[in-house]
Amino acid sequence: MPEDFLHKHVPALGRGLHRVGLSAGFGLTEVGVHAAIAAGLQYVFWNPRARLLTKVLQNMPSSQRQRLVLATGPTFGFFPGSVRRHVERCLKVLKTERLDVLQLYWLGKMSAWRAGVVDEMVRLKDEGKVGALGVSIHDRVRAGALAKDSPLDVLMIRYNAAHPGAERDIFPHVATRGPAVVAYTATAWRRLLKPPSGWNGPVPTAGDCYRFCLSHPAVDIVLMGPKDEDQLQNNLTAIERGPLSGAELAFMREFGAAVHG
């Protein structure tokens, strides 16, 4: 796959990928999910409880499903047994022998980086039941340490114009081992789409927020959670404008600081 703003080879996942990932838990219909995949999106943040997305994946031709990277994990990952049971359930639901990414959710809150849990994840990878190991995490300093020294292949982190601290605490450490970086909350839960108190200037679009994330070379994938097909298409059209210019980046940082403040 040739590399450009929207396509990148991700060594930690062993393949070239579209840099926009899909999180389909925000109202997107079955038609919308198919439209996202037809548009080239490959990285899919999935949970078997997401019935609509699960139905789409179950009915998808194997040749099409092989293009995707499915990331999933147990709702609570505190014990080795719950992690293994989640993997076994997902394999059964999707009628497959291997999951692409197994991750612990919100490390430190909904999961724990315990020796037993980590060892079980590594065993599942060694057994060929999962292809890559990851976590989602808000603790940036801890994420930076895990980027430098851990068996993790994927870090799913909060990164947006209102919360750019990953540029200091995480991104400089990624080069040590090269884990993939998946950014989420690009719009800061839509806070970046409305003016903060006292702001009288222009307001970013969702497309601007995704372009902000993708303009940083350390980011491999940014997750998008569109509510409908129109929002999906509008966002993708905006992202096709490419990386932010210097002036656009300065504006996004100024606006993000105002939102955060």
Plain-language structure description:
With 261 residues, this protein is of the alpha/beta class. Helices cover 39% and strands 18% of the residues. It contains eleven helices and ten strands. Strands 3-4-5-6-7-8-9-10 form an eight-stranded parallel beta barrel, surrounded by four helices. The longest helix is centred in the middle third of the chain and has 15 residues. The protein is globular and about 55 Å long. The termini are far apart.
Brief rundown of the structure:
By secondary structure, the chain is of the alpha/beta class.
Q: Record the strand order, biggest sheet.
A: 3-4-5-6-7-8-9-10
| Tally of separate helices | 11
Secondary-structure class: alpha/beta
Approximate strand percentage: 15-25%
- Taking pLDDT < 50 over at least 5 consecutive residues as the criterion, the unreliable ranges are none
Largest sheet: 8 strands, parallel, barrel
Distance from N terminus to C terminus (CA atoms, Å) equals: 41 Å
Beta strand count: 10
Question: From N to C, what is the helix and strand string?
Answer: EEEHEHHEHEHEHEHHEHEHH
Overall shape: globular
Specify the helix fraction band: 25-40%
* Average pLDDT over all residues: 95
Oligomer: single chain
Our Rg estimate from Cα atoms comes to: 18 Å
